[in-house]
Amino acid sequence: MTRVGAPTKVENKSRQNMGLKKDEHKLFEVLKRVFGYDSFKGNQEAIIRSVLADKDTFVIMPTGGGKSLCYQLPALIKPGTAIVVSPLIALMKNQVDSIRSFGTENNVAHFMNSSLTKLEIAQVKQDILEGQTKLLYVAPETITKEENIEFLKNIEISFYAIDEAHCISEWGHDFRPEYRRLRPIIDAIGQKVPVIALTATATPKVQQDIQKNLNMLDAQVFLSSFNRPNLYYEVRSKSKNVTKDIIKYIKGHQGKSGIVYCLSRKKVEELTESLVVNGIKALPYHAGLDAATRRQNQDRFLMEEVDIIVATIAFGMGIDKPDVRFVIHHDMPKSLEGYYQETGRSGRDDGEGNCIAFYSYDDIQKLEKFLKGKPVAEQEIAKQLLMETVSYSESSVCRRKQLLHYFGEIYTEDNCQNCDNCMHPRKKFEGKQYVQLVLETVLAVKQQFKNKHLINIILGKSAATIKSYKHNKLEVFGKGADRDEKFWNAVIRQTLIERLLTKDIENYGILKVSPEGLNFLKSPYSVMLVDDHDFENPEEEELFEALGSKSSTADKTLFALLKDLRKEIARKEKLPPFVIFQDPSLEDMAIQYPVTIEELKQITGVGSGKALKYGKPFLALIKEYVEENEIIRPMDMVVKSVVNKSGIKVFIIQSIDRKVALEDIALAKNLNFDELITEMESIVGAGTKIDIKYYIDEYIDPYHQEEIFEFFRKAETDSIEDALRELGEDEFTEEEIRLMRIQFMSELGN
After folding, report:
1. Read out DSSP for 234-269?
2. 3-class DSSP state for residue 466?
């Protein structure tokens, strides 16, 4: 029975339809007039309607999916001012510039943060009070100030948008404690308005944290696919030549925009210098630069005055540049979420987007060392996130499948055809028995332990924790001892991807058997697995690659001719051949074919001094050879060295000129003595003369000096091992010989 005076269901329906039609008209009118689009993308329309209906809304949408529109458009339609909480000043500026660029009045959008003067803040507040401002961007630190809370109490707020909402979670890749205070602040302001939380990266664990912390467990959740089909993912072994590798990659993509991420400010500066010296338009971006410089560098990148930004993770959050064609990670990030978001900066226009990461387990170990001294809980979280990164890097499974699994999404394709593991697949093997053993072990320990403990059981390791739980008495103990830890890690990772195992959300890292896993145990079926990549010994791998590339790409005929010429010049100069140019330098000449002094200076181990002193006959030989054989030279791909320009080498040379004790030089630059000697060897090897006789005379016996000098004068090689064998290890030290070799090379070769 219908109450008197109340509208009937039919009347209600009719009114709703009228409202919908009106809203729809307004929605598409604003979309076209302000933003220039005819239609929405993906979930955008449903999200915007949710906000317009005053519902709490949670948006998980990958980078490039159009998150900004989801709060910008309803802000323009709804009465009042939308408060957008954003973590970075640079991001706010970019967003405000963007919304203003659509042809609306400047006062339609403002940001309020520490970069503004008191006068500018007063103007912003005036525009808001007059009802002209539809979007106000604030940092979490700004909104928590008492004066700003009082101000916001007196204005009409349409809704709150919490951008980069993953910052709320300790399990998120960019945790910001200030974000935890947002809900109490919203409650203190006291207006009953909806909240829209947005993030491009959120694992199931992070999603749960966001909703709990913002008290929006009943929010409408819009989860877009994390799959970016246009992005190509590749992980490469990180060698000592990583800078050279990066430069070659960039030069192979001339004129295209790219971002190179590094973990430290120092590395950002060093790499930027290397790029610039090699003719690449690049700028640095990190928190150590002043705000004006950061802003200027960002703008120059957006305006395409430079091609490359070398940055820490501070750069890129929310940067709307659709045509970034590649993202390179010089160092692997601290989490897969960070990696996903940073790679997501490329190909936002659905065009080409290449994501190249350089991986070395040494880098992971360095990151682990930095955790020392932090609270245990924080260390545990950080280690778990690091291990996810290791798993991704070392695994031979489709990169896309791994990433999507991490974000709780199933990727059903066997081959994505757009990652290194799919383009160069490894041979698969039958893994049914191994998966069975893993699942049985998880059940045997009552689904209460992480993979490290489980692997120790499978391997039969009698660790203290295993004995304390009496897990050494289990039937599964030692059943997989014929394989190593690396193998079992790979099995567990792939069992997770197959969804036969899951990770506990509340106690992240604890493994549980899924319903599918239980079914598998009842009725086992074929599971094809692949071995991980072997990045365990990067130095050996690097040596192998270097030897392989040299032997395969160096021109053997030219190399032989260069060796003959070297021998001839050495005979005339009465010097050992290696003093003229060492073998690696000749090999590089036989790859790069330099024909000018400037090009010769770019060759490995050749500095200005050597090039000018010995270069002419070598250049003449190479030029003649190139012309006779009609060779196309790859010199445009050569990496110039910034070694001679680097601060540390300049400091060493200047200090030696002033006859400063070598120990004091090492101490000043935080080097051990061995590292200092290596730096001096590099300086002399590149052709710069240094005189350390003042130090040698004080510490090395004159007779020893003479004997070592005489050895190198007659020697066929500059080998320290040969010198020690010849002179006697009992009488001479390696340090003495290395110092004397530096002096010898400097006096006779430079």
Report:
1. EEEE--TTHHHHHHHHHHTTTT-EEEEE-SSHHHHH
2. helix
Residue ranges of E strands in 673-741: none
Cβ atoms of residues 627 and 706 within 8 Å: no
pLDDT at 13: 37
CA dist 321 and 505 (Å) reads: 35
Helical residues (DSSP H) of 236-375, grouped into ranges: 242-251, 265-277, 291-302, 336-343, 361-370
Nearest residue to 582 via CA among 607, 545, 557, 547: 607
Determine the distance from the C-alpha atom of residue 686 to the mean position of all C-alpha atoms in its chain, rounded to a whole number. Answer: 32
Question: How far apart (Å, rounded) are the C-alpha atoms in residues 740 and 76?
Answer: 75
| Pairing status of strand 282-285 against strand 308-311 | parallel
Counts of helices then strands in the chain (DSSP H, E): 35, 17
Query: CB-based contacts of 273: which residues, under 8 Å, 6+ apart?
Result: 642, 645
What share of the chain in percent tops pLDDT 70?
89
Summarize pLDDT for 389-445 with one digit per residue, the tens.
Answer: 988 998 999 999 999 998 888 898 989 999 999 998 888 899 999 999 999 999 999
Task: Note the pLDDT of residue 8.
Answer: 35
Q: Given this structure, which CATH class describes domain 429-529?
A: mainly alpha
Six token digits for residue 483: 């394989």
Read off the tokens for 476: 């599964």
Torsion of CA 330, 331, 337, 338, to 10 degrees: -70
Residue in 140, 137, 165 with CA at minimum distance from that of residue 57:
165
* Per-residue pLDDT, 548: 29
Residue 273: what pLDDT?
A: 94
CB burial of residue 575 (10 Å; 0-12, 13-18, 19+): middle
* pTM attached to this predicted model: 0.60
pLDDT reported for residue 103:
56
Do the domains 14-223 and 429-529 sit in the same CATH topology, yes or no? no
Cβ neighbours for 99, distance < 8 A, ≥ 6 positions apart: 72, 108, 109, 135
**Alpha carbon distances (Å) from 477 to 435, 441, 459, 463, 582:** 15, 8, 7, 12, 56
**pLDDT single digits (tens) 686-713:** 778 899 999 998 888 888 898 898 888 8
Cα gap 109→485, rounded to integer Å: 55
The strand pairing partners of 329, in sequence order, are: 261, 357
DSSP string, 67-94: HHHHHHHHHHHSSSEEEEE-S-HHHHHH
**485: enclosing H helix or E strand:** helix 485-497
What's the confidence (pLDDT) of residue 536?
A: 59
What's the pLDDT at 387?
Answer: 87
Intervals of the chain under pLDDT 70: 1-25, 64, 89-91, 94, 101-104, 172-173, 314-320, 508, 535-553, 578, 634-646, 749-750
The β-bridge relationship of strands 231-237 and 353-359 is parallel
> Which class does domain 644-749 fall in?
mainly alpha
What type of residue is 581? F
The class that CATH gives domain 14-223 is alpha beta
Which residues, other chains included, contact 529 with Cβ-Cβ below 8 Å and sequence gap of 6+? Answer: 428, 429, 430, 431, 434, 435, 490, 491, 494
Q: State the fold for domain 231-409.
A: Rossmann fold (3.40.50)
Q: In this structure, what is the dihedral angle of CA atoms 551, 555, 557, 558, given to the nearest 10 degrees?
A: -120
Instruction: Assess if CATH 3.30.70.890 describes domain 554-641.
Output: no
From residue 267, alpha-carbon distances to 144, 298, 472 in Å are 34, 18, 47
Domain ranges of the chain: 14-223, 231-409, 429-529, 554-641, 644-749
- The DSSP H or E segment spanning 490 is helix 485-497
